[in-house]
Write a structure and sequence with these properties.
Number of domains: 1
Largest sheet: 5 strands, antiparallel
CATH topology: Alpha-Beta Plaits
Number of strands: 7
Low-confidence stretches: none
Radius of gyration: 17 Å
Strand content: 25-35%
Order of helices and strands: EHEEHHEEHEE
CATH architecture: 2-Layer Sandwich
Shape: elongated
Distance between the termini: 24 Å
CATH superfamily: Molybdopterin cofactor biosynthesis C (MoaC) domain
Mean pLDDT: 89
Helix content: 25-40%
Number of helices: 4
Length: about 160
C-alpha cells in the first residue's frame, strides 16, 4: 500500500509521530547538457549573464529550493535542514553535474529536499542561459544515496 493513501485510497500525509529521530542524509543529482557554444562561454572565468554569475546563482537557488520543498510538494513534511550543499561541476565537455546533499536529524528523510535542490539548481542554469540557446537539456534527475531511517540506498551508474 502506498503510504500517502488512506484506507479509502484518498491522499493523506504520513504520520511520523511514532518514528524515532535519526540523522538522515540524501544526495541527488541532475545532469545538464549544454550546446557547445554555451559550454564554451562557461570556460570564461566566472561566466555571468545579465542575471548574474550562473553557477553561484544556481547554488543559491538549489539551496533555497531544498529549504522550500514542503511548500512545493504536497504532503512533504516541513524539515529543519541542518545542512544543504549544492555542487556544480563539469562531468564532460558539454555536461554539468549538479549534486545536492541534504542532512537533518528527524523522523522523516530528506530525499525530496535533495531532489528538489538539484532540480531547482538545474532550472536556474537553464533560465540564466536560455537567451543563448533553448537546446539546453536537463536530464537524469535522480537519488544517488540516502541514509538514516529504516532503509539505506546507494544507487549505481546503471540506475
Amino acid at each position: 500500500m502506498l503510504s500517502h493513501l488512506d484506507k479509502k485510497n484518498r491522499p493523506q500525509m504520513v504520520n511520523v509521530g511514532s518514528k524515532d529521530s535519526t540523522e538522515r542524509m540524501a544526495r541527488a543529482s541532475a545532469i545538464i547538457i549544454l550546446p557547445t557554444e554555451v559550454a564554451n562561454l562557461f570556460n570564461e572565468k566566472d561566466f555571468k549573464t545579465k542575471k548574474g554569475p550562473v553557477i553561484d546563482t544556481a547554488i543559491i537557488a538549489g539551496t533555497m529550493g531544498a529549504k522550500k520543498t514542503s511548500d512545493l510538494i504536497p504532503f512533504c513534511h516541513q524539515i529543519n535542514l541542518e545542512n544543504c550543499s549544492v555542487e556544480v561541476d563539469w562531468s564532460g565537455d558539454n555536461t554539468l553535474e549538479i549534486i545536492c546533499t541534504a542532512v537533518t536529524t528527524g523522523k522523516t528523510g530528506v530525499e525530496m529536499e535533495a531532489l528538489t535542490g538539484a532540480s531547482i539548481a538545474a532550472l536556474t542554469i537553464y533560465d540564466m542561459c536560455k537567451a543563448l540557446s533553448h537546446h539546453i537539456k536537463i536530464q537524469e534527475i535522480k537519488l544517488i544515496a540516502k541514509s538514516g531511517g529504516k532503509s539505506e540506498f546507494k544507487g549505481s551508474d546503471e540506475d
